[in-house]
Amino acid sequence: MSKLRAALNLKAAKNKWGTILGWAMFDWANSAYALVIAVAIFPSYFLEIASDSLNVFGLQMTDSTLFAWSISFSYLVVAVLSPLLSGIADYGGKRKRFMGFFTTIGGLACISLVLFTNMQTLWIGVAGFILATIGFAGGIVFNNSYLPIITTEDKYDWASAIGFALGFLGSVMLLFVNLLVIQNYEWFGLHDTQDAVLIAFAMVGLWWIGFAQIPMRKLPDDNPQPLGDQAMKKGYQELVKVAKVVWADRSILRYLTAFFLLNAGVQAVLFLASAFAKKELEFETADLILLILVLQLVAIIGALLSAWASKYFGNRYTLIILMIIWTVVCLIAYNVYDKGTFYYLAAFVGMVMGGTQSLTRSTYAKFIPEDTEDTASFFSFYDVTDKVSTVFGTFIFGIVEQLTGNMRYSVLTLTSLFILSLILLFFFVRIRAARVDA
Fold it and tell me: Which residue range is the domain that position 43 belongs to?
């Protein structure tokens, strides 16, 4: 009886609505960067300000290649740091301090983009974008590590869903405000659209840092521990351990290979669709914001449809269908030359984007050995795979354009990634019978 009472007390102590809502507000705060800076506004602005041809450390490259490789570099840094940060979060007892550090770095980096106004300040634009990306990814590591501390396991999905919903709602609201200011800049005493865009960058940074103060106040205080070798090495040691399991298990290795290829393509599309629309179809900033809003809203429907499809067709066959759609989308994008068609294409991207991202992670869970106690290490490995594939996809996109001088060939290259993933999923990937692919 005493054990039951203790369990109930622990559950009550953890599952406090105010703490969970405070934790979820971190998604509200930082999702503004993911939508407004990384996807909607900054790519177009970067290509507008930067010269078409650039000399970077003696290498001649296009402006869109530099942008793609900036993403690659950011996620390479994050992929290398991620295990270290996870170890600090788990064993260093300094979650809040590091979460605040990365939030401040990311928010200030966004604000610094207001100084990126011409080619002379290009380095500020590149450095600010890279630092904002690192701040965004670094903060998420520590915020995620709070989940087992503030909730019991039966509430994980519920709390995560609240965070996702608030993140989506907050970022879309801010993007609507940005669209209003950009389309009606004279209402606010601004001289032109560029001033309105710079205001948007500052708003994201202030929004990020400002609303992040809610979780910083609501979440439990740190319990600092000395950062010994255990904390510094643990994350990397866990990755090596999981890597050995994956290498020995051909079924999970094949699935992760398929995931690596498809995610490389998906992330390249997500980050570089705006750049493609700006450069190849001459979309204006307001057009791009509408495009991204369409993509975001349809992505929710896509996630729900993929969940329904996986129930009736199974995860593997649903992913196969999604890969076919991705392949067709890229082939159409290669041949599209008008804005109207591209809007329809964006709707399809949103549909398969939400479905692909939600389904790949849940499918991976089915490959984890059933007797595994430390599933966090397996998902840490998955997270690093996700980031490395993002580096690969954006780097390939950039290098193909660098060699050909045409972004359309880069899109065509992404098609090959989806086809290779499709082949692996169709012929080689099987989900264990114990985890029935219903």
Answer: 10-227
